[in-house]
Amino acid sequence: MENLAPCPKCQSELTYPMDNLLVCPECGHEWNPEEIEEETGLVVKDANGNLLADGDAVVIVKDLPVKGAPKPIKAGTKVKSIRLVEGDHNIDCKIDGFGSMALKSEFVKKA
């Protein structure tokens, strides 16, 4: 029997190969084992579950109130060249008209 990698999502040992992917029968997660091994460091996902990386462009999905600002950042605002950081607000960026901001990844989607 092959020694297959456990599921990165639920750590189940019951994984099986399907084409070039591995599949977990317990949680239904599918992944490419070559990509998982290359991933290191911070893993940040957007509101839709897509992986984000430094330099990506994102779109804000809901109006975000800003302390001290007269109006919120509107949904649909595009933010370019994000930087991923550790912490609750895991995206650092610059937004035109607002300046430097820290955003939560749950309020953005990959552009």
UniProtKB/TrEMBL annotation:
PANTHER family reported for this sequence: PROTEIN YJDM, PROTEIN YJDM-RELATED
NCBIfam families, from UniProt?
A: phnA
Query: Which Pfam family, an example, fits this chain?
Result: YjdM
Q: What is the protein's given name?
A: Alkylphosphonate utilization protein
Task: State the organism of origin.
Answer: Algoriphagus oliviformis
Q: Where is the Protein YjdM N-terminal domain?
A: 4-32
The Protein YjdM C-terminal domain covers: 44-111
The source's domain of life comes to Bacteria
Annotated family: Belongs to the YjdM family.
